[in-house]
Known about the structure:
The complex is a heterodimer of chains A (373) and B (341).
Chain A: H1 10-23, E1 29-35, H2 36-45, E2 55-62, H3 70-82, E3 85-90, H4 103-108, E4 113-116, H5 119-128, E5 133-140, H6 145-158, E6 163-169, H7 173-181, E7 189-192, H8 194-200, H9 206-210, E8 216-218, H10 223-238, E9 244-246, H11 258-267, E10 268-270, E11 273-276, E12 280-283, E13 287-289, H12 298-301, H13 317-321, H14 353-369
Helix pairs in contact in A: 1-10, 2-14, 6-11
Chain B: H1 19-34, E1 45-47, E2 53-60, E3 66-67, E4 70-71, H2 72-85, E5 89-101, H3 106-122, E6 126-135, E7 143-153, E8 169-172, H4 178-186, H5 205-215, E9 219-223, H6 229-241, E10 244-248, H7 256-265, E11 279-282, H8 287-296, E12 304-310, E13 316-320, E14 326-328
Parallel strand pairs in B: 5-6, 10-13
Antiparallel strand pairs in B: 1-2, 2-7, 3-4, 5-7, 8-11, 8-12, 9-11, 10-12, 13-14
Amino acid sequence: MRFVDEYRSPDLILELSSQIKRAVKDRSYRLMEICGGHTHSIYRFGIHELLPENIELIHGPGCPVCVLPLGKVDEALDLVQTNDVIFTAFGDVMRVPGSKQSPFEVKARGADIRMVYSPTDALKIAIDNPDKEVVFFAIGFETTAPSTALTIKHASALGVSNFSVFCNHVTVGPPLRSIMENECFDIDGFIGPGHVSTVIGLGPYDFVADEFSRPIVVSGFEPTDILESILWLVRLIDDGKALVENQYVRAVRQEGNLAALAAMEEVFEERPSFEWRGLGYIDSSALKIRDAYSSYDAELRFNVKSISSPEPEGAICGEVLIGMKKPEDCPLLGAACTPEYPVGALMVSSEGACSAYYTYVHRLSANSRTGAN
Amino acid sequence: MDTWFSDKEILMAHGAGGKASRKLMDGLISPILSSHGSPPTLEDSFNITNSEIFITTDSFVVNPSVFPGGTLGELAVNGTLNDLSVSGARPEVLTLALIIEAGTESKELQLQLEKIASASESAGVRVVAGDTKVVEHGSGDGVFVTTTGIGTRHPKALLSSHRVRPGDKVLVSGTLGDHGVTILMARGDLDFSSEYLSSDTANLWPLVDVLVSEFGDGVRWMRDPTRGGLASTLNELAFDVKAEIGIDEAAVPVSDAVRGACEILGLDPFHIANEGKLVAVLDPKIAQDALSLVREHRLGERAALIGEIKESPLPVVVCRTQFGAHRTLDMLTGDPLPRIC
């Protein structure tokens, strides 16, 4: 399959792996991949097995489904159950549990919750059902925010009045800064998120290099992409160079996607503060709908009351998210917390560090611990 | 009676063929029935005691009811025939129960009946009894079809997970995921399609017949990996035989159209439903010859040996990637859902 197989060439992958092994010095390299997509790729392709032992991969906060706080899911489900609406959401949000129930469970009891592939699908449902209110549950980083912004603009241009957005979009810079400002911060370099960077470009990562003196390499998602980025990081770290580099040149431009950024700027403004699952409240880390488009803001239309639901006890998601602990350090992993019944944030989506670890590695390592191969 | 099923209500995931389905089966259905005399585990088909007769039953709901490569009617016949076939039983007769929602167009019903009739005729199986119910509009979804199949054991078939041994080879009869991805596309929710996608619905008996006739008890075990995909079927086997199943990812046949769709949607072909493929565990001594034979058959042109059974203290399916790394291949959790990014 073109445009995929080239980046999964076993020869190239093994060559990159041996280049990394030759390049590393006698020291440890703690690298954080920010994006959940990278976490998923690393485990799916077994990339961690191809690295020398002194490279440690730490899984960052970039899984948009995982970092969605329980309270926001509760608010969404409260909205569905107290109003006669068609509620639309991305597929991987459907299984995310709130503090009491998940969208799937509420749907099973008769609520009209529909899975969509894009916010434009939600708008189409609104156009097709003019006598019903249709709400889109918008989540995600700058990757998905532009499509929400364009959909709101489109709805406005068409004069669709029965459509609104429950906006929970977040931005990638502030949680990254929050992790780096933590007193336990101990990471040598970052694998930068690929999809987000197609929109925001490289500029927003300058502070990583300038203020925190760490290199960051924006990376694609295929095995060769990730390995090449790791090789670059090893060299940058060894040379003491804190630079922002772009490995994902086939998709990411320095300035990002200007049209997408303009649409976001027109429709959204920063929220003063927003709660992140596992990380707590972070200033200026989320987007809300501007006054000019406030008629499309579901929070206002349905008078959504803020719900803050405490995290379940025992999980160590916060410490895993900032790289202090690993999924396998959590006492709940595989016992109380599984992809089927996620307790903590990182088990919720297949891109969450714990879910990826559990799905692809956990039972394998259980086997190797007992001496089998 | 050990009913440990703790979910408060039934969700769509309980019907998706993965972990939740297994839990419903093992935690509620099997314990209740077995406490009243049923076998402790209910299989897809059952060999009636002291006889050569096998029985199976299956219900079919699919939206849309007509899709590239097949129809609800063909699925309803082939699915039940295949449950018999992979047990090593030659399908003989079918019964047919229809639940029809009031308001369903007669021509839709007629179309599905014609498909049921032609699929069973071409399999050499007759529909010999049945039942029809009509439910209120809104209480169903068009036509629900239940078929029950009766078959007779192939004289050379000796299929059981108890006969699976370390060293045995795993064969799949062709590309994975064709049916499930085709249905996803045919629903029209996605703004892309492919002329190369088509359901693989097929009656597997002719292939099973050839394989078992030639190799007899060299064929240890067979299944048709439908809902939940190959990953769920292999995990069930790993649990049943308490062994590791090692899969060589590079050997697993998947069409480019299915791979492409799965890449875009963030799905795994190992978790997607098939309706005309079988997975067989073979005695290593006959595995290569069996592969050659299957490949000569029209239902097995892209068959491959994809892995083997390994001694292990823990039941697990391990996939070896093309460049020698490993990942576990878990059962499907819930429904296969497209990922956000």
